[in-house]
Amino acid sequence: MLGISGFFCIEHTMNETTNESSMYPLVLEPILKEKVWGGRRLAGFGKVLGEGAMVGESWELADLSSTSASGGGGEAAISVIANGSMKGKTVRDAISAWGDGMMGGVALSDEGGFPLLVKYLDAREHLSVQVHPSVEYAAAHAEAHLKTESWYVLEAEPGSVIYKGMKDGVTWADLQAAIENGTVPEVMKSMPAVVGECHTLVSGTVHALGAGVLVAEVQTPSDTTYRVYDWASEYGREGRELHIAQAVECALFEDASDGVMADLSISSAKMGMGGPPKMGSVRTRVSGTDFYTMDVISASCSEVAIVEGDSSGPVVLMVPVTMGASVASKSGGFDEVMLEAGQSVLISAGIAGDCVLRAGPGTVAVVAGVV
User: Fold this and answer.
1) Tens-place pLDDT, residues 220-273
2) How far is CA 262 from each of CA 43, 60, 140, 287, rounded to the nearest angstrom?
3) 312-353: per-residue pLDDT in tens?
4) Which end of the chain has the least Cβ crowding within 10 Å, N or C?
């Protein structure tokens, strides 16, 4: 059989049979969250938005027994599987069924769930300026949990920015005064939001996603958040509760890391008039933390290993941009899983090394590996 979604790029053979008990890539149903700052652009990433719904977040992989009222609505959020023999079951069911085959010895979260939360964020307005617990604060407060996150920029309107860390010379006293006076943005660093760039926010970094930016986000599954500024006057709305004492105690004042630019030279190449698409792939490590790694694959009409090196844990594959893609088994261990733009897949540790991404023209994929 030739092609992916009608593009004659790659030759491959589908398996004739499927072992119902075997592991396979799990396509996940998105969990959509309406937000006061949300928009409508996630419809362009395959999300079905209700009429008039302003959706800020699409939770691509979640395994949380509870969420905060302001973050996840207060209820549990556990992703449901959309394909194969486990269709209709949850990620937690798959972890229970596959055990070490799923996790590969990687630890679960403190509550026994999958140790990453993966999302798309569409910021029509600025998100609140906030900070998550520093290592020192979390060690001293049992109820506080670290939250490190990475934003990979998919779309950015002209002039849009990311707020990330404090300006040089700003002190704890300066931050506290800025919170009390409503001038927090004036003491923060801001940088242009650039498509293809990834920003990693170590827990303790004061930050905000700026209006007009759409990102793929990988984070640790904590929602301990201390809000320091809510843009109430700018948007003419009542501000939400601020957490001044906790924020000042948590905030880090060293320089935040620079963004890392992915190489998109393959996926962004234009086809000549009547000519074939550019073929090949390139991979960029855009984030490496104590909790996860994050790679961006730019590919066109090529087959790419989903994991590289000595990776031993499960991975999450997001495919925000493609004209047709799939995940296949090098050994023929499972049936090929076809993917559309915007879909996300959980790949268990036991089969990750056997999986390849078959990428049609113009494919951009984000690979998050659990450390």
Assistant:
1) 998 789 999 999 999 998 888 899 899 989 999 988 889 999 999 999 876 555
2) 24, 21, 37, 10
3) 899 999 999 999 999 999 999 999 999 999 999 999 999 999
4) N
What CA–CA distance (Å, rounded) separates 127 from 79? Answer: 24
Q: Are strands 213-219 and 117-123 parallel, antiparallel or unpaired?
A: antiparallel
Against a cut of 0.70, is the pTM above it?
yes
212 and 123 in contact (C-beta within 8 Å)? yes
**Phi, psi of 196, deg, nearest 5:** 100, -5
Write b or e for each residue in 304-319: b if 16 or more Cβ atoms lie within 10 A of its Cβ, otherwise e: bbbbeeebbbbbbbbb
Q: Which helix (DSSP H) or strand (DSSP E) does residue 126 occupy? A: none
DSSP code of residue 74:
S
Distance CA 81, CA 260 (A): 32
User: Which residues are known catalytic residues?
Assistant: 227
Please give the Cα distance from 148 to 203 (Å, whole number).
Answer: 5
Q: How far apart are CA 86 and CA 332, in angstroms?
A: 19
